[in-house]
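tool_call: predict_structure(chain=1)
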Amino acid sequence: MTHEIEFRSQMTVELVRSSAQDSDVMFAARVSTIGEQSLEQDQAVIVDPEAAEKQAKRDRGLINYLMRDRHGSPFEHNSMTFYVQAPIFVFREFMRHRIASYNEESGRYTELRPVFYVPAEDRNLIQQGKPGAYEFHPGTPEQSALVAEQTRAVSTEAFAAYQRMLEAGVAREVARIVLPLNIYSSMYVTMNARALMNFLSLRTKHEATTFPSFPQREIEMVAEQMEREWERLMPITAAAFTANGRVAP
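tool_result:
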């Protein structure tokens, strides 16, 4: 069977399911001080605009206090499930974070699609600095062309070898061993806001951070998309995270 090989430079992140909002944090935190309460009581609508603004200010203050003083458990009472498409080498970095639930596409049971990652032309290629404090700088046009040419060539030949083994009746779990790390895989990842903040603190480079991080650009591309989805769901929590140095509570 002939397969058309696709080369991509983007990551795909979709929020497929969520139960996550700022009120979840306040609901969990306030049980410490006011005891048993129902979710309906905690989310009661305040009709008076002035009273509603005062309540919103108190909510922002509480979340900021929890973030600043690193009272982390109230940020765990929520859930987000993301669908991610990225090269396998990104997933191997991702799964070093043992703070989430993962289900990844299996090359044992399905025939893998010929979709391969090739860095975009603006991807920095030159590494300088000592371990743990690398800086990356743009490559020359010749280096960019070399990376793209060699990546495409190796990916094409590797997938052809994979196909030859499958056509000869070799099991998928054996045939896949020739495929390179830049082949795309897909997974669902489920985590709460506290776990996501830990992930973002390490996998994004941000001027507001207290502890600088130097992530590989490809996993940062995934993290940035996840953060945008989270900011939409929990804007007060996300703002407090950045305001307090992007340190997970």
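agent: Residues 1-249 form a domain with the Gyrase A; domain 2 fold (CATH 3.30.1360.170). Proceeding to next step.
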